[in-house]
Amino acid sequence: MSTGVPLTIHDASGMLARQEISSLELTEVCLDRIQQCDDRVRSFITVTPELARQQAGEADRRIAAGSARPLTGVPMQVKDLICTRGVATTCASRMLEDFVPVYNATVAERLLGQGAVLLGKGNMDEFGMGSSCENSAFFPTRNPWDLERVPGGSSGGGAAAVAAGEAVYAIGSDTGGSIRQPSAMCGTVGLKPTYGLVSRYGLIAYASSLDQVGPITRDVADSALVLNAIAGPDPRDSTCLDIPAIDYAAGLALESSTPLGRGGTSGAVRLGVPEEYFTDGMEPGVREALESAIDTLAGLGADVETVSLPTTRLALACYYIIAPSECSANLARYDGVKYGYSFQDTDNMWEAMEQTRGRGFGPEVKRRIMLGAYALSAGYYDAYYLKAQQVRTLIRQEFDQVFQKVDALVTPTSPVVAFPLGSKTADPVEMYLIDVCTLPVNIAGLPAISVPCGFSQGLPVGMQLIGPHLSEQRLLRIAYAYEQATEWHEARPDL
Fold first, then answer.
1. Looking at the domain covering 1-495, what would its CATH class be?
2. Where are the domains of the chain?
3. In sequence order, which residues have a C-beta less than 8 Å from that of residue 224 and are 6 or more positions away?
4. Could you give the C-alpha distances from 337 to 175, 181, 341, 363, 418, in angstroms and in order?
5. What angle do CA 342, 343, 346 make, to 5 degrees?
6. How confident is the model over 47-97, as pLDDT tens digits?
7. Regarding beta strands 448-456 and 189-192, do their DSSP bridges make them parallel or antiparallel, or are they unpaired?
8. Closest-CA residue to 191 (of 142, 231, 240)
9. I want to staple 12 with a disulfide (CB 3.0 to 4.6 A). Which of 7, 48, 53, 247 is the partner?
10. Catalytic residue among 93, 136, 178, 325
11. Residue 387 catalytic?
12. 338 catalytic per annotation
């Protein structure tokens, strides 16, 4: 990493196992990199150097004792809405600026249980509400490929940190594309698992029926390694699926020069290209990169056909009723009484609550709370929220139907590349449209992965692969086959 070539998890793990580098040395390289460039990228809200060194020392002892796991000693960043014991977890909001959890989220617990090293907490759009990492209450994160452009959101800090070489991998959350979209814009790999595959215990909720935790990594093999560590049932999360463990990393081996072809017993992989995702709003350079990627997949033996998902055009409206409705309920707890920011310059309880919420939340969070409160209010519930849930059912059914014909779908992750800072903040609808390709996946609870597939205007383009429920192993294998046939994932910003 000191040579400017960031390590993957599997490379770092191998070097640690061979004792070519210690975890403490690797951690110092990352901390030096943060010191070198994070004043420009601003991917971290909180950096934890002393904790990281302590954890790295413990990891080195585990490695010496022969009890290392794949993530032992490998430094990571965790999004700042995932609870970490003793480390501030702010959600990039003034409301939780001083909140320090007394427990770890299940995801953090599992990673730290493997001996992972926590470098700090990643910047994000406040409470996960945004598509550019400009809605943080503290500062915007910048894209390492062009510091005048956004990294995407809301997990922009994680994608920027991995792209810049500040962390080997990051953990984000995805409510409508918040792992995949910044991964596309920063040239990293972002995996959104099936809803319920990864525990949400300790994830500070935005929209509970949509949120999912997942990894941001440098390549597909790394995503499989992290998913191995974080997936699995959790009695503390009633929505978590109780299914047998799968070794996602073991399923990546390629068998031939056409790994998606007819050599296997199940025949060629069938890929659908939904025409509704290739709209007039897509930038020409993004379209060109996607068409080239689809040709590559076909060259690897996949059967590619055009499919239709007509209800997709309703997904944006559906999402922006359901997600704000759930957020208005989830964020009602921040009232200045129990914890978090509290305005106390008045003896009137209602005025204190109004001032607490007015000052503690940023503009986008307040906008979504108001949208949700309106949709749930008497007289409008049936017209908006109930109707949106009915549309959600139609979207799910439509995906189910198309997966009777194909194994996975290929779409752009974002219809545009990273855009200039401040260029879309004045128009919320224009900003919301950035997630038009990713949010249907959350509505249906499906898994999806974004992998680098080219460049446009000198900026990364991401390809999204979507599969049916619990098809992560297949998606990872398709993504890995594509990755091995190309070199886009090896590109690094000159920062």
1. alpha beta
2. 1-495
3. 248, 249, 251, 252, 476, 480
4. 28, 36, 9, 22, 40
5. 135
6. 999 999 999 999 999 999 999 999 999 999 999 999 999 999 999 999 999
7. antiparallel
8. 231
9. 7
10. 178
11. no
12. no
What is 325-392 written as a DSSP string? HHHHHHGGG-SSSSSS----S-S-HHHHHHHHHHHHS-HHHHHHHHHHHHHHSTTTIIIIIIHHHHHH
CA–CA separation, 281 vs 313, rounded Å?
13
Quick one: which of 122, 21, 18, 8 has its CA closest to 71? Answer: 8
Q: What is the number of helices (H) and of strands (E) in the chain?
A: 15, 11
For residue 395, what are its two tokens? 């979207």
Q: Which of 22, 23, 43, 79 is catalytic?
A: 79
The model carries a pTM of 0.97
User: How far is 382 from 377, CA to CA, in rounded Å?
Assistant: 9
pLDDT tens digit string along 293-320? Answer: 999 999 999 999 999 999 999 999 999 9
Orientation angle between helical segments 363-376 and 315-330, nearest 10 degrees: 100
> What is residue 302's three-state secondary structure?
coil
Letter string b/e over residues 191-212, b meaning 16 or more CB atoms within 10 A of that residue's CB: bbbbbbbbbbbbbbbbbebbbb
Contacts of 275 (CB under 8 A, 6+ apart): 306, 307, 308
Coil, helix or strand at residue 415: coil
Decide: 167 and 149 in contact? Cβ < 8 Å.
no
**What span, in angstroms and rounded, lies between the C-alpha atoms of 108 and 113?**
8
Buried b (16+ CB within 10 A) or exposed e, 226-263: bbbbbbbebeebeebbeeeebebbeebeeeeebbbbee
* Contact call for residues 131 and 436 (beta carbons, < 8 A): no
In three-state secondary structure terms, 165 is coil
pLDDT value at position 267?
80
Kindly state the helix (H) or strand (E) to which residue 81 belongs, with its residue range: none
Query: Catalytic pick from 22, 43, 136, 154?
Result: 154
Read off the pLDDT of residues 361-416 as tens digits, 9 standing for 90 and up.
Answer: 999 999 999 999 999 999 999 999 999 999 999 999 999 999 999 999 999 999 99
Greatest CA span in the chain, whole angstroms?
A: 75
Separation between Cα atoms, residue 483 and residue 329, nearest integer Å: 41
- What band does 225 get if pLDDT is binned at 50, 70 and 90? very high
Element (H, E) at 183: helix 180-186
Confidence of residue 4 (pLDDT cuts 50, 70, 90): very low
Can 2 be counted among the known catalytic residues? no
